[in-house]
Design brief:
It is a single chain. The chain has 13 helices and 16 strands. It is an alpha/beta fold and 413 residues long. The chain has 2 domains: 9-62 and 317-411, Aspartate Aminotransferase, domain 1 (Alpha-Beta Complex), CATH 3.90.1150; 67-315, Aspartate Aminotransferase, domain 2. The strands form 4 sheets. It has a 7-stranded mixed beta sheet, sandwiched between helices. A 4-stranded mixed beta sheet has the order 1-2-3-15. Helix 3 (67-79) packs antiparallel against helix 10 and helix 11 packs parallel to helix 13 (393-411).
Length: 413
């Protein structure tokens, strides 16, 4: 069989043709060949199983292959895998839009469905810019924050911290936005402010209190500036509530969703706007239309998966599971605070981060974690855990034990 074995044929034949993400292509170590997933585990071609500590880039909130999501996708696949969304609509999309609007703070009623988190941000930026154009008072500046990351497409990169982040080499090609520290308050004249509430995830798992989010939202209201909440990583229970903005008691003008929207089964994202934003587009003038429409917008398979994922939040104790994970991470990662080379240990909901003084041995750390039977992927100066909410207590303990053990070795302990 070509799909199994330590070096399956498909790996040997295809690896030279695959352009891998976030990888220096010359001299990079080979990726691990995966043949199956189940629950919170990744099965490799050589028979090893790894406990996934980052839920496939934070998407698989219910674990892999949840039968309810699989059944929903299979049922939809038999009836209609896809149909264009221009001039047409379908039940899975209509149901999903209504359910998402019901979960949002009051007034966020208008749902634009796309196919990735970066695109959701692009749509939010276009909405915000065109909001002011349609009103006849153009504003051309966005406010973002140091250490921010909002995606890999050019618009999303332009409101990320390119100077210190992963896109530094492209900084000269990006539109210049206003980059502020979290304490900044003056947003006058900006089209919008964009923020990941409570946790800047890919920006280093940097955390800030709900009061900061509330103050930023208040400053936006004071200046009439739109507030965009990027909940692509923080949404769907990850920070302890269904959405991080709930903890700050704020209602953004625009919310971006993605990652866990489908429970990690298929790519999908959403940009949700309130009535204030939507009203600027209510016109019979074609120039006032939002000119955006991904080919796979509102893909029925992804909509079915997202609806099934929302079913699980309704019927299974996801937020209680997040609270249990948070309690464990706080206790189990605490010994890292005393280790040489560790700057900080932070926990929020089902997110645990150990910040290092510097990352001098990234590949070595990745290899050691695999040897321990866990899948963790440190980046920057952070070793982090963001497991599925359904992870078994024993598996969660193995993740944290491996983290502490490997970092103790690194510290010379």
């Amino acid at each position: 069989m070509t799909g199994i074995g330590r070096n399956p044929a498909w790996r040997a034949d295809g690896i030279a043709h695959l352009w891998r993400p976030y990888t220096a292509m010359k001299g990079a170590g080979p990726p691990l060949p995966v043949v199956a997933t189940e629950g919170c585990r990744i099965r490799l071609a050589d028979g090893r199983e790894l406990i996934d500590g980052i839920a496939s880039w934070w998407t698989a909130c219910h674990g892999y292959n949840h039968p309810h999501i699989v059944a929903a996708i299979e049922d939809q696949l038999r009836r209609m895998p896809h149909v264009m969304f221009g001039g047409l609509t379908h039940e899975p999309a209509a149901r999903l839009a209504a359910r998402l609007a019901a979960l949002m703070p009051a007034g966020l009623d208008h749902v634009f469905l796309s196919d990735s988190g970066s695109v959701a941000v692009e749509v939010a930026l276009k909405m915000a810019a065109q909001f002011w154009i349609n009103r006849g008072t153009p504003r051309t500046r966005f406010v973002c924050f140091r250490n921010a990351y909002h995606g890999d497409t050019m618009g999303a990169m332009s409101v990320s911290d390119a100077e210190s982040g992963m896109h530094a080499s492209l900084a000269a090609y990006l539109p210049r936005q206003t980059m502020l520290d979290l304490a900044a308050r003056d947003f006058a004249g900006a089209a919008a402010v964009i923020l990941e509430p409570l946790v800047q995830c890919a920006g280093g798992m940097r955390m800030h209190p709900p009061e900061t989010v509330a103050a930023i939202a208040a400053a936006c209201r004071e200046h009439g500036t739109l507030f965009i909440a990027d909940e692509i990583a923080t949404g769907f229970g990850r920070t302890g509530t269904m959405f991080a903005c709930e903890q700050a008691g704020v209602a953004p003008d625009i919310v971006c969703l993605g990652k866990a929207l489908t429970g990690g089964a298929l790519g999908m994202a959403a940009t949700i706007a309130n009535g204030r934003v939507f009203e600027a587009f209510e016109s019979d003038d074609p120039a006032h239309a939002l000119m955006h429409g991904p080919s796979y917008m509102a893909n029925p398979l992804a909509c079915a998966a997202a609806n099934a994922s929302l079913d699980l939040f309704d019927t299974e104790p996801r937020l209680e599971q997040v609270a249990a994970i948070e309690a464990h991470l706080k206790e189990a990662l605490a010994p890292c605070r005393t280790l040489a080379g560790v700057v900080d240990v932070r926990v929020k909901g089902a997110i645990g981060a150990v910040q290092l003084e510097r990352m001098r041995d990234l590949q070595l750390l990745k290899d050691r974690f695999v040897a321990e039977g866990v899948w963790l992927r440190p980046f920057g100066d952070v070793v982090y855990l963001m497991p599925s909410f359904t992870i078994a207590p024993d598996d969660l303990a193995r993740l944290t034990d491996a983290t502490v053990r490997v970092l103790k070795e690194r510290a010379g302990g």
